[in-house]
Design a protein that fits this description.
This protein is α/β, with parallel strands linked by helices. Helices cover 50% and strands 16% of the residues.
Length: 272
């Protein structure tokens, strides 16, 4: 669908994620005059982004009713921001929140509308390769189409049926890029421990992750387990490493389960 149906669109919070999403919208055909960035103290990069794309920056939420309001601020300031956003909520306004942990009930009460979508995107949205988990309550099919179109400008979208699943999405994909980046750090450090120069170890680790991700993307119909098996020769070097990583106790699966659960618990705490 045409993103003109999402205008006028007000983006509250012009941080890295907000501007990444805005860049995707504009690239997919959102008219610049239909987008307003709200940031009382915009960074120089935001000012340059607005100048480059011909987008308006405002230090306060416009009083005119918006078709879509996207709340892209930290959970800690959401209470104040929702009160401001409510000033631009009209009978046809859809509110989209990308703040971790803030529940639908609080979003609806704070903005004065039941037409709310909770979303958890991730940072690869900056290059159009993100994935967003989304949950909506009582919204129309058109509202859902509008939300999907906006989110697909930054990558894939997965709709979940239960609101509690959004906290799980946050802990898997929302925080997930950081897990991958730390894997690069850990792999490079392991290479150094085996005698490789730091620069060489990091180059090998980075490109290995990039290449493996490319295979996942290229063959998205092949299970990750099958791709792993394709690399693994019986009793070979990879098998020896996987014996450690796939150990029943303290293996990577157990470690990742605990890490993701910790992230989910924190997401739930943020919503209190």
């Amino acid at each position: 669908m045409s993103l003109t149906r999402a205008t006028p669109l007000v983006l509250i919070g012009a941080g890295k994620m907000g501007t990444a999403m805005a860049g995707g919208w504009l690239a997919k055909g959102l008219p610049p005059h239909g987008l307003t960035l709200v940031d009382p103290s915009p960074a120089e990069a935001v000012i340059e982004f607005a100048r480059k794309h011909g987008v308006q920056i405002a230090d306060a939420v416009p009083r005119e009713s918006a078709r879509v309001i996207v709340l892209a601020v930290k959970p800690q300031v959401m209470g104040e921001v929702m009160g401001d956003a409510a000033m631009a909520v009209g009978p046809d306004t859809l509110v989209v929140s990308i703040a971790a942990g803030i529940p639908m009930a609080k979003l609806s009460a704070g903005t004065g509308t039941h037409r709310v979508v909770r979303v958890m995107p991730n940072t690869p949205a900056q290059i159009g390769k993100g994935i967003s988990g989304a949950y909506a309550g009582d919204i129309s099919a058109e509202d859902r189409d509008v939300a999907t179109a906006l989110l697909e400008a930054a990558g894939r979208v997965v709709w979940v049926d239960n609101e509690t699943d959004i906290d799980a999405v946050t802990s898997v994909s929302g925080s997930g890029p950081a897990y991958v980046f730390h894997l690069v750090e850990a792999l490079a450090a392991a290479g150094e421990a085996e005698g490789l120069p730091a620069e060489t170890a990091m180059a090998l680790a980075r490109q290995t992750i990039i290449g493996a991700a490319g295979l996942l993307e290229e063959d998205d119909w092949i299970p990750a387990a099958k791709l792993r098996e394709n690399v693994t020769s019986p009793k070979g070097t990879t098998a020896a490493a996987l014996d450690v990583l796939m150990a029943n106790e303290d293996g990577l699966r157990d470690l990742m389960r605990r890490a993701v659960h910790a992230a989910r618990l924190r997401a739930e705490e943020l919503g209190q």
